[in-house]
Amino acid sequence: MDPQPPPVRQWRVPRALSVVKALGALALIALGLALADGDPVRPALAGSLAAALLAWALRDLVAPVRLAVDPEGLTVIRGYAGRRRLPWAAVEAIRLDRRSRRGVTAETLEIDAGESLHLFGRRDLDAPLEEVAATLTAARAAAR
Predict the structure, then answer these.
(1) Phi and psi based region of residue 114 (left: phi greater than 0; alpha: psi -120 to 50; beta: remaining)
(2) Which listed residue, 52, 74, 86, 119, has the most CB atoms within 10 A of its CB?
(3) pLDDT per residue over 74-126, tens digit each?
(4) DSSP code string of the chain
């Protein structure tokens, strides 16, 4: 088995975001209990939403690194907490997509690997997406 080269750079979910999600789940449970007023549906609904939010927070703790780059290629998150290795030959394009709607600009980093498209937002990587795209493009050019 070939050892993986050490990553040159990693981008991860900010730790504070996981804490906010967990606190939000607790707030949902408290709100559901406070507004229950004898109705079992409200706490059950709040509990279901809180469980989903906790699962989302758990993903951030289990797989905090969303994107890593090294001289051989990229490692991206796949599914809930899996990883997928993309050699540079598989990466067709690295783009930064900016869209404005109603005065709000949304940015998405797109990594096109032919049969798969990997999308990352600012909160996925905890870094300005323009800088991440520049780092990835430079690493890709250096590997060629």
Answers:
(1) left
(2) 74
(3) 999 999 889 999 999 999 999 999 999 999 989 999 999 988 999 999 999 99
(4) -PPPPPPSEEEE--HHHHHHHHHHHHHHHHHHHHT-TT-SHHHHHHHHHHHHHHHHHHHHHH--EEEEEETTEEEEEETTTEEEEEEGGG--EEEEEEEEETTEEEEEEEEE-SS-EEEE-HHHHTS-HHHHHHHHHHHHHHH-
Beta bridge partners, 112, equal: 93, 117
Return the CATH architecture of domain 65-143: Roll (2.30)
Domain residue limits, the chain? 15-62, 65-143
Q: How far apart are CA 31 and CA 144, in angstroms?
A: 55
Report how far apart, in Å, the C-alpha atoms of 74 and of each of 77, 96, 129, 144 are.
10, 16, 16, 14
pTM of the complete model:
0.81
